Amino acid sequence: MLPKKDELLILPLGGLEQIGANCTMIGTNKEWIIVDLGIAFYDSLGIEVLTPDISFPLSVLDNISGLFITHAHEDHIGAIQHLWPQLKCPIYVTEFPAAVLRQKLKEYPWGDQVPLKTVSIKNPVKLKNFTIEYVSLSHSILGACGLYIKTNAGTVFHTGDWKVDESPLLGDKSDEKRLEEIGREGVDCLLCDSTNILDYDDNAGSEADVREALTRIVSQYKSKRITVTCFASNIARMETVFHVARKAGRKISVVGKSMFKMISAVSDTSYLSKDFKAGIASIVTDEEAVSMPPSKVLFICTGSQGEARSALFRLARGENRVIKLGKQDVVLFSSKVIPGNELYIRDMQNLLTRNGVEIVTTATEDDMHVSGHPSKGDLSMMYNWLNPKSMMPVHGDSVMLYAHQKFARENGISETLVAESGDIISVAGGHLQKVGKIDVTFNALDGRSLIPITSKIITDRTIMSQNGSISVSFVLSADDRLINAPDVAISGVHIEKGQFQKLNTMIFQLVNNEISKYSGDFDRIKKECTIAIKKLMTRHYEKKPMVFIHIHKV
Which end of the chain is flanked by fewer CB atoms within 10 Å, N or C? Predict the structure, then answer.
């Protein structure tokens, strides 16, 4: 499907109904662009990462002119290394996200083939039917920008992730002047971040507030060894931790590969400040850190969201070869809990506590973190700056999206629409209308393979995790008779001691019965044996395990 000359279409492929996997297509006059290509975290059934479904982009590949990145968070860029080899389109990105992507892509043999086009904020990208301007917005990562997208059929402003921070310690302020100018030029549709719509009425605060709070908290634990956990991508927070550690006379030890990657990315950009350089200069190795008095060292690591493979969770499980956390340690969680991660974080905190570690979170020290997303007050300011004719909430689950729609209407934006992934939205003079829908699902990264989350592989894995499995193998003679009793292997189903032989006998009778009825038809025998054994397991054990039938013939 290609957009017509006089129409402007928006097609979200992710970032709605859930946090993460942000990806949106925008099209006009037979040309499409993609905004962001991120991952969502899953952590179930052996799956850790989900990516957007790019079946539709691949169907119109010759008409996609580029992928435009708003900022370098994983939920906006994390799927690029998995999906770019299929898309193979140019990637437009500002300085810091470009540095982060280079760090990620150099691990792949094809990484140097990716056409990364570094964009200057003052120089819009001009395509056949699009003019795309990057506009500076504050966020919890460097180089975050909104996209001002102009076409002959209308205009769209996509905020990406943003907030209002009047005193960012590192990075750029939101360009209010340019936003007001764009508002006067005219915005037909605003695509706007919804993450904090339920949490903050007023401004969420500045990184300067966090620096002050962490300085105070660290000073309270002079005899303890301190670990601060935060997002690796929050470079301003990392610089704050560097500053606080130096002020407290502590050396810094960085734990976790992703932290080092971000430090390397900053080092390649103009954002490398004197404070950050000084912080890098004070870094010591793990071995050096553990040999120092507890009062003289501060660890900084990832894992604030309870990610199973993160540096902090490995520390909590005692898996780090060098560092062992115990009664001498205090861990500061300088982060917000992302909805859906509560149980993982709690499990990790329980492990830490059982090891004697003291934990400090924003539940008691709320100034220890500020959000990178807009409060209601920030949203009102954005509405006033841009004065959009319509608004479509993005970046949030359904509760957030509908709350944002309500808030926008209360603030004078009467034309609003809550979309779902796969909805095709027409923007016509500020009027939003659903004009079609495509089927989309998430892809699960399973080892090195990407498979639909709705695939039989995932369905089977779900059944086995809940009901176990049973495998039945038997050998048939040349005239289709059982040579001996079937070999039965059961996994994940509790069979009481002494009952296994009884179950074997029942399965033998069922299999023998089906063989006699469908002699010679192996497929039918497999099907009927599967049905019969499932009924047997349901009747006797109230379980419906996966059943595997293996027939061998001599």
Answer: C
Point out the domain boundary residue: 367, 382, 397. Answer: 367
pLDDT, position 277? 87
Could you tell me if 536 and 394 lie in one domain?
no
Torsion angle of C-alpha atoms 186, 189, 195, 199, degrees rounded to 10: 70
Q: Are 358 and 394 in contact (CB under 8 A)?
A: no
CA-CA distances (angstroms) from residue 292 to 82, 285, 287, 314? 41, 11, 9, 21
Instruction: Please tell me the predicted confidence (pLDDT) of residue 249.
Output: 95
The residue written with tokens 């964009």 in the block is 119
| Domain membership of residue 110 as a residue range | 8-202+371-452
Q: Find residue 41's DSSP bridge partners.
A: 49
In a domain? residue 3: no
Which two structure tokens, joined as six digits, stand for 29?
């006059």
Helical H segments across 197-256, by residue range: 207-219, 235-247
Q: Do 394 and 421 share a domain, yes or no?
A: yes
> Quick check: is 2 in a domain?
no
**Is residue 38 a contact partner of residue 79, using CB atoms and an 8 Å limit?**
yes
Give the per-residue pLDDT at 365.
81
Q: Which tokens hold the place of 374?
A: 């807009």
Return the closest-CA partner of residue 322 out of 288, 292, 349, 351. 288
pLDDT of residue 496: 85
Which residue from 546, 404, 350 is spatially nearest to 462, judged by alpha carbons? 546
Ranges in the chain, pLDDT < 50: none
Q: Can you state the angle between helices 235-247 and 257-267, rounded to 10 degrees? A: 100
Start-to-end CA span in the chain (Å): 55
Cα torsion for 120, 122, 125, 126, to the nearest 10°? -150
CATH number, residue 359: 3.40.50.10710
